[in-house]
């Protein structure tokens, strides 16, 4: 399954980098007048930049088929990387192919918009940077009292205006519009992305699924448990370990979709969706004010936990390491996989942050479920010395929690097996749960006589 996953991810990169821009480059190269040959490289770079920007917009629509193939975190990563690369190519295009009049003006406006949004997004919407650069994290906390998430989403949509400016920019270049095969591909790409974006917005406004908040209870300090009942004539495609996007169309400040992991397995007979949400941001802090009966829109499910576990043998041992609110997606896996052998190491900063502890203790009565919990993070010795020698040849690690905790365990597991188990043939699978956006990221460590490799 992981070979298929990595093949899919690699193929996605290949298609985006080479296949998508290729028709634009071929038609442009075949029809470009010889008089512009000295500027041809810069012109080609502009075409690639436009193709990547359109791809970035399409990825922003969160296509379900691609999420199930490579996962939403990788989609967002690709979205961010190709956007930055496209802006870089746009600058090379600008300086390598000078112009004037409205051609120059529309191009410059587009680049300035793209650049400003990129800088803003790196602070407010790119958790990868803020989780690793303390200065950016501090700056974000200072500014987010003014720049709420809903405002950030709307500012991010200025990318559409910038892309429209590029579209107009191309229409003003007579020697390009004279290349009819190129313009056919140009219009086709633009139309496909435009239609995909409009359809995603229509689904967003109508709601993939409508529902009602049945209960809203305090689960722990600063943690709310929402129970939502979807309407029967709608259907969510949820699997255990998934997350869903929710919004509250009638409440100010809660109208934009946010992702949260489901706590109960979707096969639950109650037909309810249970979410445990910590109040970290402006959206989540308002959830405590929601009353039963409030309308909610849902979109999903997203995630690759289910397909990952389903494609591995049922006798594979599962070791879970969870921190705080990061336990939420693992709960649906434990409850929905009574036949699997599971060990859970669960920690939090304070006693009251160990949510659903009574339920976990009940599951501990199973012969194949082992629960370990404590206040304060587990160390390498706490988990590996306790569990390592008894691991079967195929073990799945599910790590869920804050980004620093995830990075620690990722480094620790790789280092441990590289140094201690280099002569032992074993296969260890790591599924890393990203926080706070409740998405998953797959890592694979293949332990053999050559050491490890991460794919």
Automatic annotation (TrEMBL):
Bilayer-spanning residue ranges: 12-36, 42-60, 72-91, 111-130, 151-172, 178-200
Cofactor: FAD
Keywords, ordered alphabetically: 2Fe-2S, FAD, Flavoprotein, Iron, Iron-sulfur, Membrane, Metal-binding, Oxidoreductase, Transmembrane, Transmembrane helix
Family matches, as InterPro entries: FAD-bd_8, FAD-bd_FR_type, FNR_nucleotide-bd, MRET, OxRdtase_FAD/NAD-bd, Riboflavin_synthase-like_b-brl
Pfam family, one: NAD_binding_1
Keyword Transmembrane helix: yes
Family annotation (PANTHER family): 1,2-PHENYLACETYL-COA EPOXIDASE, SUBUNIT E (PTHR47354:SF8), NADH OXIDOREDUCTASE HCR (PTHR47354)
Name of the protein: Predicted ferric reductase
């Amino acid at each position: 399954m992981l070979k298929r996953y990595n093949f899919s991810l690699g193929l996605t990169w290949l298609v985006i980098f080479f296949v998508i821009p290729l028709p634009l480059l071929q038609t442009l190269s075949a029809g470009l007048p010889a008089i512009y040959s000295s500027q041809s490289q810069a012109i080609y770079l502009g075409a690639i930049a436009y193709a990547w920007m359109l791809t970035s917009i399409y990825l922003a629509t969160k296509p379900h088929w691609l999420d199930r193939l490579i996962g939403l975190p990788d989609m967002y990563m690709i979205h961010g990387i190709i956007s930055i690369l496209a802006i870089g190519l746009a600058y090379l295009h600008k300086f390598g192919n000078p112009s004037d009049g409205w051609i120059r003006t529309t191009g410059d406006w587009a680049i300035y918009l793209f650049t400003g949004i990129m800088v803003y997004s790196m602070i407010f919407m790119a958790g990868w940077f803020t989780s690793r650069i303390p200065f950016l994290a501090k700056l974000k906390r200072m500014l987010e009292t003014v720049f709420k998430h809903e405002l950030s989403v709307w500012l991010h949509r200025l990318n559409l205006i910038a892309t429209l400016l590029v579209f107009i920019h191309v229409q003003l270049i007579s020697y390009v519009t004279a290349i009819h095969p190129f313009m056919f591909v140009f219009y086709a790409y633009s139309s496909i992305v435009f239609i995909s974006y409009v359809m995603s917005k229509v689904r967003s406004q109508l709601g993939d699924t409508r529902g009602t908040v049945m209960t809203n209870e305090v689960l722990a300090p600063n943690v709310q448990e929402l129970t939502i009942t979807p309407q029967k004539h709608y259907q969510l495609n949820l699997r255990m370990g998934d997350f869903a996007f929710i919004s509250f169309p009638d409440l100010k400040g809660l109208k934009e979709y946010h992702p949260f992991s489901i706590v109960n397995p979707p096969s639950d007979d109650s037909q309810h969706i249970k979410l445990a949400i910590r109040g970290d941001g402006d959206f989540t802090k308002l959830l405590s004010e929601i009353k039963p009966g409030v309308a909610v829109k849902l979109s999903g499910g997203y995630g690759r936990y289910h397909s990952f576990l389903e494609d591995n043998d049922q006798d594979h041992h599962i070791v879970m390491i969870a921190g705080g609110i990061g336990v939420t997606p693992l709960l649906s896996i434990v409850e929905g996989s009574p036949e699997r052998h599971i060990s859970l190491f669960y920690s939090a900063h304070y006693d009251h942050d160990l949510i659903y502890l009574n339920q976990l203790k009940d599951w501990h009565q199973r012969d194949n479920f082992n629960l370990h919990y404590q206040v304060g993070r587990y160390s390498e010795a706490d988990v590996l010395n306790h569990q390592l020698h008894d691991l079967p040849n195929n073990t799945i690690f599910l790590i869920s929690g804050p980004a620093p905790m995830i990075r620690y365990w990722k480094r620790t597991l790789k280092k441990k097996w590289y140094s201690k188990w280099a002569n032992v043939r074993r296969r260890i699978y790591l599924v890393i749960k990203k926080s706070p956006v409740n998405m998953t990221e797959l890592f694979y460590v293949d332990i053999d006589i050559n050491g490890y490799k991460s794919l």
